[in-house]
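Progress against Task 2.4 (sequence-to-structure conversion) is shown through the following example record, which the project officer requested during the mid-term review.
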Amino acid sequence: MVHAYILIQTEVGKSASVAKEIEQIPGVTQAEDVTGPYDVIVRAEAPTVDDLGKMVMSKVQAVDGITRTLTCPVVHF
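Structure tokens generated for the chain above:
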């Protein structure tokens, strides 16, 4: 299983609604609106890196109000 953090920037005033909608996406384990350079931070998981990328591109980035995403896969050394 591949785990990742997805850092999201949203339109002004949209962070709460974006976080709430993203929480409903299969594979998302947590979505919280935060302060700082990013507006929402998401913890997600998928069977493979390819599946993770597909989820981000087809489901997460399709949420209304998102302006930018940065996906950070978790690594274990």
